Amino acid sequence: MIKSNQRFFNFILVLFDIIIVTAALLFAWYIRFVSPFFDDGVRTMNLGSYIDLLGLIIPLYLLLFLFFGLYQPYRKQRFFKEFREIILANSFGIAIVMSILFTMKSIHFSRYMLGIFFLTSTLLMILERGSIRKILRMARERGFNIKYLIIVGAGSIGQTFAAKIVGDRQLGYKISGYVDDYYHKGDKDGIPVLGTTREMNEILEEYQVDEVIIALPNTSYKRIDEVIDICEYQGIKTQIIPDYFHLIQGTKPYFDELDGIPLINTRYIPLDQPVNKWIKRSLDIMLSILILILVSPIMLITAILVKITSPGPIIYKQIRVGMGRKEFWIYKFRSMRCDTSIAGETGWTTENDPRKTKFGAFIRKTSIDELPQFMNVLKGDMSIVGPRPERPHYVTQFQHEIPKYMIKHHVRPGITGWAQVKGWRGDTSIHKRIECDIEYIEKWTLWFDIKVFFMTFKAVFESGY
């Protein structure tokens, strides 16, 4: 029944999305070609051609909405996350449409109209999803669309789960009560204790229950088996909270399997997912090529000035520790005198470091010395955004001094990172830096990378990053 309701709800969402995409395109066509806002008299394509374009746009957008999780149940998904995914899905959609039109040499479609379509469809979809959430929330506050739960286990695990449910009414859950063998019938923090697991069958027949949440310790596996058997006999869905859930780090647990054997990763790392890894790597390659082309004049001038202002090589290579704790050569424009480079292998570089040349101080302050690292990105040693890589000497030192330091090596190191744009760069608190690195690793999204990328420019111009 629950699955059929969800399928019907998703069908309605798909229908609304089709209507919105269609309405957005028609509105964009009207604004561009009929309204007085554009009085240039241009009419390169008739309305029928744009309506035909919906044959490409609608299935593409629906697939992207599905890919970005916009048809998942609303109860367990925050609106901010959905808001972000709507923007990303629509951005990818319009980019793909324009790429296809360009490839097929369909150059007569109005770019202004497509831009208006993108803005309109994004805004309307945000309003649609926000309105649906508001309607559902109002319905739940009036007792509609509510799911009733029974929690088996009134100990600390069950109480923690109950507190989450009670504290967030928009989830649309209501707790009928606890079932526990060690608490007498009565009241536990405002939630009734309905009986023991031996009375489970009678309790399920007496109370309206949609789901049973099992919050028992692992040592009670016999009781867990019995409860599951009874719930399946009654046709009621069960979910288990592992009593070691506090060991699972990060934003959410990550479940895997090996030939049918379930595995729980204790730390969820989004970039372990093949799709996320592919998206990030593809963007790294495309952006690195583009940036290297754009800054090539700057790099050429920098190379000449490095050679003129100080004898020695133009590019300085240094061993750093990257993803999987593998060492690689990182590339920079040389900013120090050659006779001090060896001393720099085990010493921090400070703002007024006497080892720097005058021109070296300038390129370090403006981060121009980091530009050759886009070659590291193309090689696959680094990413544009990620934790900054450190020298082996410091990795060995910090591994023993700072808990969880080595977690940063789960992903590719970056030219810029969350810690750096937050101000933790160079000779600053390594503890704060690692906190930011772990936050980035556990909460990675494409949106997070975009945010850090643009914050880097602000950091460069405001604080000499």
For the terminal residues, how far apart are their CA atoms? 57 Å
Q: Quick check: average pLDDT? A: 83
| Adjacency order of strands in the biggest sheet | 3-4-2-1-5-6
Question: Stretches where pLDDT falls below 50 for ≥5 residues?
Answer: none
Give the biggest sheet: 6 strands, mixed
Q: Please trace the helix and strand order, writing H or E for each element.
A: HHHHEHEEEHEHEEEHEEHHEHEHHH
Roughly how much helix do the residues carry, as a percent range? 40-55%
Subcellular location: Membrane
GO molecular function: phosphotransferase activity, for other substituted phosphate groups
Transmembrane segments: 12-31, 51-71, 83-103, 109-127, 285-306
Keywords: Membrane, Transferase, Transmembrane, Transmembrane helix
Describe this structure in words.
By secondary structure, the chain is an alpha/beta fold. It folds into 3 domains: 2-141, no CATH class; 147-247, Rossmann fold; 274-463, no CATH class. Helices cover 51% and strands 13% of the residues. It has helices at 2-33, 47-67, 79-103, 111-141, 156-167, 200-206, 221-234, 274-309, 358-365, 373-379, 392-401, 418-421, 430-442, 446-463; strands at 147-152, 173-179, 186-188, 191-195, 211-214, 237-240, 254-258, 261-265, 315-321, 327-333, 383-385, 414-416. The protein has a 6-stranded mixed β-sheet, sandwiched between helices. Helix 6 packs parallel to helix 7 and helix 8 runs antiparallel to helix 10 (373-379). The longest helix is centred in the middle third of the chain and has 36 residues, at 274-309. The mean pLDDT is 83.
